[in-house]
């Protein structure tokens, strides 16, 4: 129940006169000696407010959720007069279910509030009439959450992508505890790079530092790529890894926010990815004139991935696609055997240049040429 008034400046002033356990006050009536009856519903009760102050009043705070099991320290109290402070704690949000009993806080000795470690806490102030009048200005409870390890949401790897670190600016974490932007910079297409990004959170809101490791197929040891990272992304040169299949592991540590020995870490592995930076080889390229046709044969082979496609050009004409023997290109080695018309040449000895090129699945390309000299 509130008292409302407006001063000469036009500003509103509210005073909290009564807190009733019922959710609604539905009627008022005059009582004897200047008192006031208040009828409530949900639950239905009848209260009486006297014309003068009571000898004792109680104010009870809302339940505070620390979100994590915490150790409760001392109370920082600002007020005056005869005020007693009590506190209790529990691990469910309903104080009626298995909470600790109310413990009186010794405000004179500036001691701890004396309640068990728990996730939830509540305080209660009991005000006793006197001179000066009792007043509570503020109550703050100090606490230390239990440290919990960081928790990864995702680790992703993109081959052919580079993340460019952005300049530090206002609003980004520079080591002073300011909030950092979690969104990585836009990916830049770079076929010679591998980009790693991750999403991780910490329920203690600790600062974190990261390390990135990699491991090849069939290997058991994680090898360090980079440590002491503060960004949630990292890019590196794809040529550092020989052709093959790999997995990346990211380690997150809350060490910047804790004493040595108290820090916790968490790790998360990426999905397997493949690296192929070596182009296929062109082998046994041969070209001969067979009447009005040029007969070309060659073989394309790659050490890691299947051949994706092949093309040819005669005398610097446009590139033309050529199918492998068997038509389906799905092997690390493909053979090619085809005929093309002999291009017209000026009078005199004829000479033709045949160039072929092949691509593997990761768009690595190699080429080769041969020269046909006529009589």
Task: Walk me through what this model shows.
This protein is mostly beta strands. The protein folds into 4 domains: 2-52, no CATH class; 58-145, no CATH class; 151-275, Sandwich (Immunoglobulin-like), CATH 2.60.40; 281-373, Immunoglobulin-like (Sandwich). It is 0% helix and 55% strand. The protein contains no helices and 26 strands. It has strands spanning 2-6, 12-16, 24-30, 36-41, 45-49, 56-60, 64-80, 82-90, 103-105, 118-128, 135-145, 151-162, 188-201, 209-216, 223-229, 233-237, 244-253, 265-269, 273-275, 281-290, 293-301, 307-314, 320-322, 333-341, 351-360, 365-373. Strand 20 and strand 21 (293-301) form a beta hairpin. The protein is rod-shaped.
How would you summarize the topology of this molecule?
Blueprint: E1 2-6, E2 12-16, E3 24-30, E4 36-41, E5 45-49, E6 56-60, E7 64-80, E8 82-90, E9 103-105, E10 118-128, E11 135-145, E12 151-162, E13 188-201, E14 209-216, E15 223-229, E16 233-237, E17 244-253, E18 265-269, E19 273-275, E20 281-290, E21 293-301, E22 307-314, E23 320-322, E24 333-341, E25 351-360, E26 365-373
